[in-house]
Specification:
By secondary structure, this protein is an alpha/beta fold. It has a single domain, classed as Rossmann fold (3-Layer(aba) Sandwich). It has 10 helices and 7 strands. The chain has a 7-stranded parallel sheet with strand order 3-2-1-4-5-6-7, sandwiched between helices. Strand 2, helix 2 and strand 3 form a beta-alpha-beta unit. Helix 1 runs parallel beside helix 2 and helix 3 runs parallel beside helix 4.
């Protein structure tokens, strides 16, 4: 097993990539702490228990630094020192153009998607450095590379995660800590499955693999990056998108791109 006797904490563990990652890391031998604002995180813990895996849960808002401190301390008491942190939690609910995005919506998206990851890292980085071993994986998005129509807060926050990832590497690689980012494309999560079929089909058409990614595929990549085998991979940005980033078209803009091509 890749992660035997390691303690991992995963944010956004109630569903989607976070839930799949929790299950895979547990299968690889880790003791797992599940963090989410949604009480449904208990369902992830129950699924793990049915498979014979130990998990602890903590329900708190990662955008609140004080609550993060309390939650991490509680998880340490239940599981022991934290070896692995997966910053997966994120929101993508504020759909609006730059001109129409409200300051309140912008602040909330940055607070959860970017500041939340910072708060989590800040709480665990000191003890990791003292033990000279740690693994941090930040779940960004291919939107960090090319932007995303009508999701300025999401794209900007996910791009910010890349700067956070590189800075942690620069400051703590000498402490035996790796910090990497994975950049999923369109993955078959519950939220993606609920998207209008037209949008989902357009995204698949823009993906050379011609399909959605699977949550387990992202989870297994995260498990590898959290293992001893990935000790010299640091500050990396790893797309897992079926080749979507290679297409010059941006998700959500096919109508505009088509109109431009016809005009030319």
């Amino acid at each position: 097993m890749l992660l035997e006797n390691k303690v991992a904490v995963i944010t956004g563990a109630a569903r989607g990539i976070g839930r799949a990652t929790a299950l895979v890391l547990a299968q690889e031998g880790a003791r797992v702490g599940l963090v989410d604002l949604l009480p449904e995180v208990e369902e992830t813990a129950a699924a793990m228990a049915r498979s014979g895996h130990r998990a602890a849960t903590a329900v708190f808002d990662i955008a609140d630094a004080a609550r993060v401190h309390e939650g991490i301390e509680a998880l340490r008491q239940m599981l022991g020192p934290i070896d692995i942190l997966v910053n997966n939690a994120g929101i993508v609910t504020n759909v609006a153009s730059v001109a129409r995005m409200t300051p309140e919506a912008w602040q909330r998206e940055i607070a959860v998607n970017l500041s939340g990851a910072f708060h989590m890292i800040r709480e665990i980085i000191g003890p990791m450095a003292a033990r000279k071993w740690g693994r941090i994986v930040n779940v960004s998005s291919v939107a960090a590379l090319g932007g995303l129509h009508n999701q300025v807060g999401y794209a900007a926050s996910k791009a910010g995660l890349l700067g956070l990832t590189k800075t942690v590497t620069l400051e703590h690689a000498r402490d035996g800590i790796t910090c990497n980012a994975v950049l999923p494309g369109l993955i078959a999560t519950e939220l993606v499955s609920a998207m209008p079929a037209e949008i989902r089909d357009s995204a698949v058409a823009l993906t050379p693999a011609r399909r959605l990614g699977l949550t387990d595929e992202v989870a297994h990549l995260i498990a590898f990056l959290a293992s001893e085998h990935a000790g010299f991979i640091n500050g990396a940005e790893i797309p897992i998108d079926g080749g979507m980033r290679l297409n010059a078209s941006s998700l959500g803009s096919r109508r505009e791109v088509g109109a431009t091509r016809r005009a030319l």
